[in-house]
Amino acid sequence: MSVRAGRRGPGRRLRRSVVAPQSGALREAGPAQARPRADPARRTADLPHLAAPHDGVPARGSRRGRRRELTMADSPRQQCLADGRIDPEDLDLLDSVARYARFFLETPRPVRPRDPDRLAALLGGELPGEGNGEHATLRRLVEAGESGLLPSGDSRSFGYVVGGALPIGIASDWLVSLWDQCAAVYETSPLASVAEQVCERWLVDLFGLPTGTVMGLTSGCTTANLACLAAAREHQLHAAGWNVNEQGMRLSPPVTVLTGEHTHVSGLRCLRLLGLGDQVAQVDAGTDGRMDPRHLAELAARAPGGLIVCGQVGSTDCGSVDPLTEIADITHDHGGWLHLDAACGMWAAASPVLRPALEGLERADSWSCDGHKWLNTPYDCGIALCARPEPFVDAVRFDADYLQTAERTGRDPMDHRVEISQRARALTLWAILHHEGREGIARIVERNCSAARELGSLLAREPGVELLAPVTLNQVLLHIGGEDRTQRVVDTLNSAGTCWVTPTTWNGRPAVRISVSNWQTGRESADATADAFLSAYREHGEPGTSASRPPADKR
């Protein structure tokens, strides 16, 4: 088998219905205290939808429950396989999961897991020898889940930037598993290939990107960054007369990479994987978290060789957006490639209200974002976009004799990403885009940003609580005192199960970050979260007693 690299050439869940909202409309449930919380340690034996069919009788599908006199050749399952039919036991299994899904979506539960020891016990032990029946295995898995799930779909789950899952996303993702398509080339799944091509066209239009921009679907923003930065490296080295696919990096011409002070670690990780880790210089940022264009211009003027600039659209901690027009001008004036990590913030481009905060977005050469954050696709869905198709495809494409490519049939998804075999993510993405439409997506991001502003405003009124950066999009960054007090407040909130937040450090100061990225979260969730936050804050000391002084300006 021969393999050839690409070459240049011509050419909280307070309560959520399992029925998707009509016309993209969004709903928020009433206060959590109006309903009792579910016990996370509740045994699945108490859940009728996953209980054994008869007490004392092993579940269908259990080896112990099958008639021993049946041989493998004439067992019901083998007979179904021989006839090309589905075993009714398998359909029962799917019905059980569907019933549990309805129970899960309709049942309030604490935001944090409560029984990690039980979780470890349920999942642990030695690998079974003979194995267990399907229903018994699912019951064990669900019981472990009830002890160890983080309900990231909750309207008050604000840790990291996790997002939720729209009902249409869950339902369509079930179909993806049912159909089990390998979205590698057109021949392995025409459905996935065409869906991905349609999603590419829709997203380029939604984000207002240049005509001809291409898209690849990945596991997340990290691998989307990897594909885009590989394209940037390919472009800059090709301009210097170097074919990195054939000649490698050991003796290559220099490439300088300039990143913002608050660049996400995934971008730095990708640069290291690409052999550019020792060629990175950091651009200062202002107190608002935005890249300083003057410092960027100074570094760009001194940069040897090809230039790559990495900006941000919605930083992880405070949601800041770099001055995109200015950094695009500076980058392109020096012959550079501008890549924007827009893991979450890219979706703000769908809103006419929020789009002005992203002015200059279309000036970049490549972009990375996640569907599983603000678009609320089920995990996982990363999106790589590139306005320069040729270096993008050259950076990641390869051919092999056994692969039947789409020259005569259609688009090959693997030509636009690092992975070859991959889940048909485009189908879930297509379903959400088709269901929500432009206006539905705009409503989600506007609703979340409104809730974030409300939260920031309510909390900043409290003496001793300091808003460390303007609430630009959906991130709220707060200083509430020293590291110990900050951690105590976070632990109190998370252990109570009323909301989930995470700590961070901002310019040397302890901070709490609140990320609003769930399709259900609105102002009602913001009000309830503010009440819980202030109660925990007041519980752990007098206002302002632990405040630390900000560091001196580094510039």
From TrEMBL:
<keyword id="KW-0808">Transferase</keyword>
<dbReference type="GO" id="GO:0004058">
    <property type="term" value="F:aromatic-L-amino-acid decarboxylase activity"/>
</dbReference>
<feature type="region of interest" description="Disordered">
    <location>
        <begin position="1"/>
        <end position="82"/>
    </location>
</feature>
<keyword id="KW-0663">Pyridoxal phosphate</keyword>
<dbReference type="GO" id="GO:0030170">
    <property type="term" value="F:pyridoxal phosphate binding"/>
</dbReference>
<keyword id="KW-0032">Aminotransferase</keyword>
<comment type="similarity">
    <text>Belongs to the group II decarboxylase family.</text>
</comment>
<dbReference type="GO" id="GO:0008483">
    <property type="term" value="F:transaminase activity"/>
</dbReference>
<dbReference type="InterPro" id="IPR002129">
    <property type="entry name" value="PyrdxlP-dep_de-COase"/>
</dbReference>
<feature type="compositionally biased region" description="Basic residues">
    <location>
        <begin position="1"/>
        <end position="16"/>
    </location>
</feature>
<feature type="modified residue" description="N6-(pyridoxal phosphate)lysine">
    <location>
        <position position="373"/>
    </location>
</feature>
<protein>
    <submittedName>
        <fullName>Aspartate aminotransferase family protein</fullName>
    </submittedName>
</protein>
<dbReference type="InterPro" id="IPR015421">
    <property type="entry name" value="PyrdxlP-dep_Trfase_major"/>
</dbReference>
<dbReference type="InterPro" id="IPR010977">
    <property type="entry name" value="Aromatic_deC"/>
</dbReference>
<dbReference type="GO" id="GO:0019752">
    <property type="term" value="P:carboxylic acid metabolic process"/>
</dbReference>
<keyword id="KW-0210">Decarboxylase</keyword>
<dbReference type="InterPro" id="IPR015424">
    <property type="entry name" value="PyrdxlP-dep_Trfase"/>
</dbReference>
<keyword id="KW-0456">Lyase</keyword>
<dbReference type="Pfam" id="PF00282">
    <property type="entry name" value="Pyridoxal_deC"/>
</dbReference>
<feature type="compositionally biased region" description="Basic and acidic residues">
    <location>
        <begin position="36"/>
        <end position="46"/>
    </location>
</feature>
<dbReference type="InterPro" id="IPR015422">
    <property type="entry name" value="PyrdxlP-dep_Trfase_small"/>
</dbReference>
